[in-house]
Amino acid sequence: MQTIERESCRGIIETESIDQCYSLLFAKKQDRGLSWISKEQYIRNDIKCHYDQCIICNNNNSSNSNNSSSSSTTTMSNKQKKEEQKKKELLQQQKQQKTTINAKPIIIADIKVISEYLDILELESVKNNQTLVVLETVFRYIQYNSGPKFFDRLKKLITSNPNGDKVIYFTNDLNKQTQLDREQDKDKGNNQSESIDTYESRRIVNAARWFGQHLHDQKHLVKVPIYLITNNDQMIDIAKKTKQLGKETQDGDIKILGLKEYLYQYYSGNTSVLDVYESLTLMIKEKQLEEQNNTSSSSSSSLYERYWDDDIKAVELKSGNIVSGKIHINQFNREEAFVKIQSSTIASTRGGHGDKIMIIGKKNINRAIHGDKVGIFVLPESEWMDQSTSASVLGDLDDQKDDMIAEENKEEDQVLSSIQTTKANNKKNEKKIMTAKVVGIFQRNWRDYVGTIESGSTVYSNFVNVVPLDSRIPIIRVATKSAEAFVNKRIIVRIDRWDLSSSYPAGHYVSSVGERGSLETELGCLMVEHDISLRPWSKQILDSLPTSDTWSIPKDERKKRRIMADSGHRVMSIDPLGSKDIDDTISLARLDGDRVIEIGVHIADVTHFVAKGSPLDIEAQRRGTTIYLPDRRFDMLPAVLSEDLCSLWGGKERCAMSVVWRMELDATTQEYKIVDSWFGKTIINSCGEFHYQLAQDIIDGKVVDGKDRDEDVTNGGKNAGYRNRLHNNRRELAGALDLESIEVRFTFNESTKTPDRIVLKSDLEVHSLVAEYMILANAAVGTRIHQYHPGAALLRRHPPPNQLGFSNIQQLFDMFGFPFDSSSNSRLAESLKNAVVPGDPLANQIIKLKTVNVVSEAVYFSTGGFNVDDFYHYGLALNKYTHFTSPIRRYADIIVHRQLMDAVLTKPADQDDHSMAILADHLNLRHRASKTLQREATQMFQSLYFQHHPKPNVEAIITDIRSNSVIVLVPEYGLRDRVYLLDKDGKPIMPSDDNSFKSKIQSMVFNETNVEFKLEDGTKKQLSIFDHIVVNIHTQENDYHLPPVKMDFVQILKSQNKNTLFNKEQVSKKSIVDQIKKDEKSKDQMDHRDTTSNPYGFNLNQQEKEEEQEKLQGGKSSKHQQSIYELIKDLDDLKLEKIEQVGSRIDYSKGKTIVKKEKEGKVLKLWSMNDKQSKEYRTKADQYLRDAISKQYKQQRLLYLKQQQQEDGDDEYYDEEYEDDNEKIAPTISVKDKYGDLISKTEQGHLKALRDLSLSKRKFN
């Protein structure tokens, strides 16, 4: 609900952005809240034309103000009165000006022009050079006589221009000057009303006449050309009559033009506009010709069955005889498809394979396009598929990364237990797969398609075949007279129809993307495919932004915010290397030593700069999210905000939204517990800006003086966190899932801009630190906003997965005898944790990767539409969760920030469940499209990499078996793709270099978990899931699609040769804790004493050793279980204060409590190192630690010898430099043999002193 004008006992009158329906509305309850049904309309005389240059309408108060002034008095501040007076004076000056405005033409399009040529009106080159008036008469006709997607396009065209300088919506049917009643038809007599077509034509002509007269009566608008665009002869006749009867304007009446005449008059030099017009005109003519032929032709010439009538479909659907759902076409074979069914349908009780009904063959698919909502009729059981022969086909369909499947999972996210129960009772059907045929279309999903003209097509005819980029879409016959200009280009086309007698759908040309093979063109194609439009920031938005040079936090704003520095908080950020949009920081303050602490999560306050309802807010909502691609990103907000004023840079004051937890140390359990939470607006000044590797090195004690200038604060590692390792398994115990994902990144050649290296993201302990804090903040905010907005809070839920999807995962567990239980997230997590294959470290990773494809997608939702039990986040094991921590790159977080401040300030809610649910659906679509685009762009860059760097003899692991291939994972490059074992003719493909194949392959049998080879000499071989093979990786040229990565089968690896070809740094994502375990084990083997050496050279007693081992193994320590809150102390020990920015990063020597004199020479920064420098740096860092320990040993040794001299009464002076300065006494076997007793005694005494000091502090506190 937007602006309420007046209330009545039965309904309300409201104003909407498009409709402006001055109508009496009545509430009607529906599934998702209330809808408002118009029952009565009110004719008004104060409806504005909305033309931005019209002084008459702009000088008057809005209709709302006129109405309200008659019933109540509105008080205005002096500032508002001055602004109104200034506006009136300016308008009066404009009115008195003798000069006229040479504005762009105004066109009023009729119904036929809008419905047939909307593509032209959507072109930017046309929108920017005219003002289109959409009449309410036309708008309502399109609403009730076209499909929902077409109507959405018209609404989008209107709403994308809120200023009214390009598109105007005029409510002519409610304007007293333009409204007309239906008249009697004098020719027919008998009091019959005129035809609907005539009535609509009269209303359009009358509105056009008034519009022209209204504007031309103003002197400065006399020369503005106004056209009624129509191809309707009847309307032209009516207009001529109206012209004779109506009042003439000072400079002549509005002109009536056909669309072709208008386009050639104003766009004669714009070939792209004229190409679209010609293509649409050809399609319209062919459609008319087809309709004439269909009336005279027989059904015997049809290639497909005619769709059932809508009335029959509705009855059969209700009775359960047909099933509705979205059709999913197999991207590897367009003659295979499926429809996902719900457990509530009758078809789900008839057996089959899980929740899918197969559709096989072109005739059964019956002209349905991927994504259409279809009605399907289940075929007789005799035509069902045998499950043994269809398993790999179903696997092909499961391989598809289909956005619509995620959308359907949102509609039904409950476990389909009813299907499993029924299958047990239908044993006769359990080996059969249901098949069906399409009998009707409920809703088309046609969109813009990118394609390439088929090679061999005749470019001199009016129609050419275009092969779509999406392999699930059939070839499209496109009408165009300019086909020759589009050869070797990617073009955008739209489907218009698919006739019964045509093998392919017919469509028209929209625009050209660019030359095929160009990087910019191919990325542009992907964006079109996923409906991502990123127009440049408008001048209005850019002019409203502050400048980074002059902006500072206003004094009034300071009074409203908590300054975190005054609370003793030291704030720091930890982000990926090279991040420009730093939107989250963490902080810690000690209030009572270590007994009481405060930990804060501070998020960029984007809402301070993005006002609700502003043009920037509207555009940010449209984009929904920042899009990250391998070589670029597309920001949701302008760079001045995302990279500067909102970004929480170190050493600069920034506005933030914060969550601060007060924690107290429990004396019994030695754990910190949250005793209070605070939410609100703050001012922060980050004193430490880290990237992940630097933060991890500080925790590990690897940052040394002369490298990152932090020796004075890390103290050679003694202040960093080996004893305070991250050990928080509370969410894991509650059922949180630890699933795998492969994140691929690229380094690029600076000259060619092509990828020259593939880098896999490695997991660090500090990643978990940051993630846990962000998850904790998101959960806390989600709980808070739901308390205040129980019916319209924007939360994020992760529904439980469909249990039927775990059937393939179950097979993998059965192969190795692992127990598998997916009845709850905690049991699933336990099963995945225990599924470790001895001798194959990647097996567990593969199982987790496959599990990711089974679990459903997390989605945004409005709390008013779901039960509280459905709020649960399955993956994180949290009851309430939202997105709060990334407002720079996610619009959902901006909404959550606003809702949080409403809760803090106890403001009334201004959004209902219905509007919030619509927004949540939009954000889910944008998030899904962004994620899919990122995945496909990554695949494209992988292809580009292997195109320039083909790789022979790479080891891969089989993850799935398909009908003619196996799917493998190449861990070294994060690549998962197919290795074909059969060619296009179905003949076996021999491995290129495998001596174990003594003869040719005679036949193959593809089963669910293995492939059986039968050789000509009678021997047999087998490939199973988790087997390792060798492949050659290269790319395959393709004129129509992105060049696919191709892997050729080389040989089967024997068991003893597995994992021999992997780059150890890229095989698996080793955590730092696992690496330390390995190092400690090797040191234990070298040390004959019952002690464990940690990285800092100190020895631990047996009890401490057991505690450390428990932590490393993920178990619980009985006395000193560490939590995530303690790890931040390692970074807090840096004692950083205000710092200054140097270049692209931070000089950490500024503002420290101890600053050593900087050594001469170039200082290497960790973020600027290449691989070789990084390796040398780590080697030197380890050497530095050993040297520091050696120096300590030497000093202790000298002190010991001096004491011995004094005790023995030896007066001989002992020279402290008696040993060679170059001798380094590192903790090796030889050194410990030499100084063993002294080392043990010294270290034990040192540890005892530390424990005594810790105990004394506790007693003192």
From TrEMBL:
<feature type="compositionally biased region" description="Basic and acidic residues">
    <location>
        <begin position="80"/>
        <end position="90"/>
    </location>
</feature>
<dbReference type="GO" id="GO:0008859">
    <property type="term" value="F:exoribonuclease II activity"/>
</dbReference>
<keyword id="KW-0460">Magnesium</keyword>
<dbReference type="Pfam" id="PF00773">
    <property type="entry name" value="RNB"/>
</dbReference>
<dbReference type="InterPro" id="IPR041505">
    <property type="entry name" value="Dis3_CSD2"/>
</dbReference>
<protein>
    <recommendedName>
        <fullName>DIS3-like exonuclease 1</fullName>
        <ecNumber>3.1.13.1</ecNumber>
    </recommendedName>
</protein>
<comment type="similarity">
    <text>Belongs to the RNR ribonuclease family.</text>
</comment>
<dbReference type="GO" id="GO:0006364">
    <property type="term" value="P:rRNA processing"/>
</dbReference>
<dbReference type="GO" id="GO:0003723">
    <property type="term" value="F:RNA binding"/>
</dbReference>
<keyword id="KW-0698">rRNA processing</keyword>
<keyword id="KW-0269">Exonuclease</keyword>
<dbReference type="Pfam" id="PF17216">
    <property type="entry name" value="Rrp44_CSD1"/>
</dbReference>
<dbReference type="InterPro" id="IPR033771">
    <property type="entry name" value="Rrp44_CSD1"/>
</dbReference>
<dbReference type="InterPro" id="IPR001900">
    <property type="entry name" value="RNase_II/R"/>
</dbReference>
<keyword id="KW-0963">Cytoplasm</keyword>
<keyword id="KW-0540">Nuclease</keyword>
<keyword id="KW-0694">RNA-binding</keyword>
<keyword id="KW-0539">Nucleus</keyword>
<dbReference type="Pfam" id="PF17849">
    <property type="entry name" value="OB_Dis3"/>
</dbReference>
<feature type="compositionally biased region" description="Low complexity">
    <location>
        <begin position="63"/>
        <end position="78"/>
    </location>
</feature>
<dbReference type="InterPro" id="IPR022966">
    <property type="entry name" value="RNase_II/R_CS"/>
</dbReference>
<dbReference type="GO" id="GO:0000177">
    <property type="term" value="C:cytoplasmic exosome (RNase complex)"/>
</dbReference>
<dbReference type="GO" id="GO:0000176">
    <property type="term" value="C:nuclear exosome (RNase complex)"/>
</dbReference>
<feature type="region of interest" description="Disordered">
    <location>
        <begin position="1073"/>
        <end position="1119"/>
    </location>
</feature>
<dbReference type="InterPro" id="IPR050180">
    <property type="entry name" value="RNR_Ribonuclease"/>
</dbReference>
<feature type="compositionally biased region" description="Basic and acidic residues">
    <location>
        <begin position="1073"/>
        <end position="1091"/>
    </location>
</feature>
<keyword id="KW-0378">Hydrolase</keyword>
<dbReference type="GO" id="GO:0000956">
    <property type="term" value="P:nuclear-transcribed mRNA catabolic process"/>
</dbReference>
<dbReference type="GO" id="GO:0016075">
    <property type="term" value="P:rRNA catabolic process"/>
</dbReference>
<keyword id="KW-0271">Exosome</keyword>
<dbReference type="InterPro" id="IPR012340">
    <property type="entry name" value="NA-bd_OB-fold"/>
</dbReference>
<feature type="domain" description="RNB">
    <location>
        <begin position="561"/>
        <end position="906"/>
    </location>
</feature>
<feature type="region of interest" description="Disordered">
    <location>
        <begin position="63"/>
        <end position="91"/>
    </location>
</feature>
